[in-house]
Prior knowledge:
By secondary structure, this protein is an alpha+beta fold. The chain has helices at residues 59-62, 69-72, 110-119, 137-143, 165-172, 175-182; strands at 18-21, 34-41, 45-50, 54-58, 76-79, 83-96, 101-105, 124-133, 147-150. Strands 1, 2, 3, 4, 5, 6, 7, 8 and 9 form a nine-stranded mixed sheet that branches. The longest helix has 10 residues, at 110-119. The chain is globular, with a radius of gyration of 17 Å.
Amino acid sequence: MRSLHPVDPAAGNFQGLLLAAHPGLRDPNFRRSVLLLTMHGSETGAFGFVLNQPLGKTAAELLPGHDRHALLERVPVYLGGPVGHDQLGFAGLDWDTETETWHLETHLSLDEVGHRLNDRPNQVRAFVGYSGWSAGQLEEELAQKAWVLVKPEQSTVEPVSMNRLWFRVMGALGPTYKLMASKPDDPSLN
């Protein structure tokens, strides 16, 4: 991962940006999380999915006996966030070369999932839950330094070592973030 720089929250629309939990964020729902913001507006709030919390399961394991079992076995499942844990949704990731951001197309049908798996198998995911903020809430959390906005790289969403994504992002943000990310949860263990 190349050197990354935080995006200024005053930049406006955060859609397509990564939202990395600041090393000091202790909220268990988002600790050491990296999210892809799929929607953001000053009037509507923000919506996104955690990218680095794989559940170690496939959609077939969550939907046993489904008639499309072979297809569902190829779709990894991630915890998308603390809202809507009773919902399983399918999504496809698309890299936009013009804006150099990832877009997440949600609510895919199983037919769409099948087509995408044939074309781009590493860019299809299932998510249990999602993350959402009401209007102004995310901006307030950014002002409190709970999050760092980051422009993604094309390699960001590769499923290889997804559980190390937060550490990779922090390290790419520079030595200060890397040092903060490496400190133990309990300083007395140091």
